[in-house]
Amino acid sequence: MKWKYALPAVPAAGIAGLAAYDLTQKHHALLRNFPVLGHMRYILETIGPELRQYIITGNDEERPFSRNQRRWIYASSKLQNNYFGFGTDNNTEYTDGYPIIKHRTFSDVAPATASHAGEGAAIPSAKVIGEHRKRTKAFRPTSVVNISAMSYGSLSGAAIEALNRGAAEAGCMHNTGEGGLSPHHRKGADLILQIGTSYFGCRDKAGRFDLEKLKDVVASAPVKALEIKLSQGAKPGLGGLLPAAKVTPEIAAIRGIEPGVDCASPSRHAEFHGVDSMLDWVELLAAETGVPVGIKSAVGNLDFWEQLVAQMSTTQRGVDFITVDGGEGGTGAAPLIFSESVSLPFRVGFTRAYSIFARAGIAEQVTFIGSGKLGLPANAVVAFALGCDLVNVAREAMMSIGCIQAQKCHTDKCPTGIATQDEWLAHGLDPSIKSERAANYVRTLRRDLLKVSEACGVSHPGLITADDLDLLNGQESAALLRDVYKYEPGWGQPSAADREEITRLMCGAPKGGSVAPSVTATV
What we know:
By secondary structure, this protein is of the alpha/beta class. The radius of gyration is 25 Å and the shape is globular. β10 (367-371), α14 (377-386) and β11 form a beta-alpha-beta unit. The model is unreliable at 510-523 (pLDDT under 50). It is 37% helix and 10% strand. The protein has an eight-stranded parallel beta sheet.
């Protein structure tokens, strides 16, 4: 009977102790004025993102990804019904810049009506990366949708493994991110090896770039290309930071750094200091490894792009591909000012950079890759119409393996075990199951891109033109995508030869023999 009365006293004592602490501490006025109850404010602040996305906001309001967008990704990754009923939730009549894809009434190409039709199509790139500069290992990417750069360290080993296995299953490439090539990247997918300013995985003990180490890494894995990271949309112009809590002994060994210490990357490369020396380095890497070499950058000041085009137009040096990252921010945690206000959003940034290449007549020599919330079909279609040859997906791929947009990437407390090095949190993510969901998502995105391409009367998303889309100006009017971004006729399209070849590949027409549309080979 004594316990009957003693038990209620335990929580009462705890509350009394908390109240006493609140009343005596001086760091938080709210808690001194409202002891115990004041903690509710901090609890609500902590779970605010979850409350907003599930209770408060409408289906198309939550950012960075709305509930409808997340639902489409989740359903696609699980091969569930990803259709939507009763019309759009989007406020199309009152949203400036809303893209409208214009289907054709009559065409020789038409989409199949079966819901899963097209999921088996890999949709190869219309361009061969490295072909123009005759790289030894030039290749045609087998998929126009690929997994974007996310380092092991920022993401858990289980998450990297799930994405890599999923990429292998879907037949697409996986970008390693700047954190080096880890064992979790070696699960079957073709790789783009990213080289950042700290040269992780290819540096000596002093932190300087080591060419021999790079060659060893490239030879040890299915590395198809090298990507030199100049900047990224989440924090353009700012070096990366991996908090000490995430720098495990394994990550430290892969990166060549000290474990348990904040890992800060510089904002600029030490191997080159301008466009001229950068292109010398690009050609060195290509010659020594044989693989195509490209760059990744957000778009800000246009001097760099104008100098790059000038050098590529007048010398024999050049990059094989360019990944343009939107300033909307991505998987990387960043200071608020950088994620919200530094560098141009994707559409504006990409079109400014692309236009410089197109005006000089060399856009067809480069494979353009877009990234920045392009893992949603409508956004990807706009990117292809503007001149992208491939799209990279990051946050959408994270959602396909379980991300719930908790926005705790920078805390090491990701509740789904994706953006964390906490062993307990990461153990909940099963790569064998999540890899299937990543593959399903990529296949479904490609399926939708193929269907909408065929609705526009073409057999490949890279053949959609800037005339095939309008951007709405509320209810008043609509303007051609071409006119909005001042594109000249022919801009945003592969060369005539590339258009002919990709049409042949997609339609299966023979050229000296039969070919399978989804099979591509190194040239």
